[in-house]
Design brief:
The complex is a heterodimer. Chain A is α/β, with parallel strands linked by helices. In chain A, about 35% of the residues lie in helices and about 20% in strands. Chain A is built from ten helices and eight strands. In chain A, helix 1 packs parallel to helix 8. The longest helix of chain A has 13 residues. The model of chain A has no long low-confidence stretch (mean pLDDT about 95). By secondary structure, chain B is an alpha/beta fold. Chain B is about 45% helix and about 15% strand. In chain B, the strands form three sheets. An eight-stranded parallel beta barrel of chain B has the order 1-4-5-7-10-11-12-14, surrounded by eight helices. Chain B has a two-stranded antiparallel ribbon with strand order 2-3. A two-stranded antiparallel ribbon of chain B has the order 8-9. The longest helix of chain B is centred in the last third of the chain and has 24 residues. Classes of the chains: A alpha/beta, B alpha/beta. At the A-B interface, helix 2, helix 5 and helix 8 of A face helix 6 and helix 7 of B.
């Protein structure tokens, strides 16, 4: 598959490496343009292609939001019309500025993202595993949850997560994404399918 | 290869509760003085603002240490530069540096914990902009010649119009860029010709090998490679017996991770996870002197770092055990490392 990654920090570069190892093509963008990413791409993720944000969204099967939540909701949402988007962000109250519906857990942060990118197909995944454990825990039976209101989108992301070497598990709807956000038992905890079932 | 210690100040447990924060400061000064006596190369004090890590004012502690130690290099680890005034930072560290006879350094970070942002009235959304601007000013002040004046203008503090920043150190302070492994920060350090301090608090050490390659590659691109230097800051603990070290540090480390987890929304760590990370390529350096020395040497062969320093007092580590660990680090670990690398 062709994977687009938005954000070239610790999470973005780890996901890029994992995706390349899984046999995918990777295009990656940050807010400062592809030239700023040339060196980091060459050394850290050889084989990935630095690109403009517009290209990363246009020329890929789906994109992953691998940037801080408050930066994600400043992206130009018109670029994402009909796009399959994996939301790997988390809402951290002290960092993002106060959003009351999220502080009160009335919405999952991915429902908020879906409301912002109103014509995109949002899938919540890869948010509950630490970036430094991605490459360490691939192939160990660790579960990565996948939640969406769009079943076809969810299914495609399940295939992608499995291609990275994780056990992709159904995380329900975006609203049910509340169960694997910060301050939950599942957040940042290593578990297998058997442990999840029990 | 320099071996050292860093601390955020660690409040002791008294009758099952957190003791007074002030005791952590006198304990910390005692620890620095001991580190000097046992021949360690570096002691860093990391700015934190919590009831369990109360070292909110590193330059003050370092000035006291500067006056009461002989050889050890002293630094912040880190200064949260994003929420400080670079003029004040330079003044305070330059003062301590003068008192010490030139042994004081700054390790400047963006800030890994968030407390200082609301405390001093900054927005975390400006995280990187704050750091970039303040680092620029700090480096400019540090590079001024004798009695040279500075004019400067930015966004986050009032402009400077031909002012002399005093007291000036004889030589520029050594200023490190601290990072937890963000690629852009790594490139920034190389571009600014700065030594880099990686704090590696979890996962595998080898994860940082490509990042250090990026640092050196960027140095070639910017023509700064001669100035580049890598230090590693790790959680760790030393006791004569490896199992004692691992058990003692587990109690302290798991306590601190549980506290942090509540603040940051992640679950408490498990002993399995800890055991996996306190061996071989893991980020936690708890063990016997020989084991820790071997791991430092092994890592040095891979990344060529010039300093490795350890945070051993976390989660209400009993002070006597902490002092013993500092002693072992200075009298056992450091000589083993020096001897192996001299060959």
């Amino acid at each position: 598959m062709k994977i687009g990654i938005i954000g070239a920090g610790r999470l973005g570069t780890s996901l890029a490496r994992l995706s390349l190892n899984g046999g995918h093509e990777v295009a990656i963008a940050n807010s400062r343009g592809p030239e700023s990413l040339e060196l980091a791409t060459k050394v850290l993720i050889p084989g990935a292609r630095p690109a403009e944000l517009t290209e990363v969204v246009r020329d890929t099967d789906f994109v992953i939001l691998a940037l801080p939540f408050h930066q994600a909701i400043q992206l130009d949402k018109t670029l994402f019309d009909g796009k399959l988007v994996i939301d790997a962000t988390n809402y951290w109250a002290p960092v993002e500025g106060t959003i009351e519906v999220l502080d009160a857990s009335e919405l999952s942060s991915s429902e908020y993202i879906q409301q912002y990118f109103d014509t995109a197909r949002i899938v919540k995944s890869l948010n509950h595993i630490a970036y430094n454990e991605l490459e360490e825990h691939t192939g160990t039976g660790r579960v990565v949850l996948v939640a969406s209101d769009d079943d076809d989108a969810k299914q495609r992301v399940v295939h992608y997560i499995e291609s990275l070497g994780f056990d992709a598990s159904n995380g329900g709807t975006l609203a049910e994404g509340l169960h694997f956000q910060p301050d939950t038992q599942l957040f940042n905890t290593r578990f297998t399918r058997d442990q999840l079932d029990s | 290869m320099e071996i050292g210690v860093f601390s955020f100040g660690d409040v002791q447990r008294e009758n099952g509760k957190l003791g007074p924060t002030r005791d952590a400061i006198t304990n910390l000064l005692e620890a620095i003085q001991l580190a000097d006596k046992v021949g360690l190369d570096f002691f860093g004090v990391g700015e934190h603002h919590t009831e369990y890590f109360p070292a909110s004012s590193p330059s003050t502690i370092l000035a006291a240490a500067a006056a009461t130690t002989k050889n050890i290099k002293l630094g912040s680890a880190v200064t949260v530069l994003s929420t400080d005034d670079p003029v004040r930072t330079y003044q305070q560290f330059s003062t301590a540096n003068i008192i010490s006879g030139g042994r004081v350094e700054i390790i400047a970070g963006r800030g890994s914990s968030t407390e200082s942002f609301p405390l001093f009235g900054y927005s975390l959304q400006d995280y990187d902009k704050l750091y970039a601007e303040k680092l620029d000013l700090l480096l400019q002040i540090n590079a001024l010649k004798e009695h040279e004046k500075i004019s400067w203008e930015g966004t986050f503090r009032p402009p400077l119009d031909k002012v002399e920043i005093v007291p000036q150190s004889k030589k520029p302070l050594k200023i490190w860029l601290a990072t937890g492994g963000n690629p852009e920060s790594t490139i920034r350090a190389a571009r600014l010709s700065m030594p880099i301090a990686y704090a590696i608090i979890g996962g595998r050490m080898s994860r940082f090998v490509p990042l250090i390659e990026l640092y050196r590659e960027a140095g070639k691109q910017y023509g700064t490679e001669k100035a580049l230097e890598v230090s590693i800051a790790s959680p760790g603990f030393i006791a004569e017996n490896a199992q004692d070290a691992k058990d003692t540090f587990w109690d302290a480390w798991s306590s601190t991770m549980t506290t942090l987890g509540k603040v940051r929304g992640f679950a408490a760590p498990t002993r399995d996870h800890y055991d996996a990370e306190s061996n071989h390529d893991g980020a936690l350096f708890a063990g016997s002197p020989q084991e820790i020395a071997d791991r430092i040497i092994e890592l040095h062969k891979r990344i060529g770092h010039t300093r490795h320093f350890f945070q051993m007092d976390v989660g209400q580590m009993p002070h006597d055990k902490y002092l013993k660990a500092i002693e072992l680090l200075g009298t056992k670990v450091a000589p083993l490392v020096r001897e192996a690398l001299a060959k």
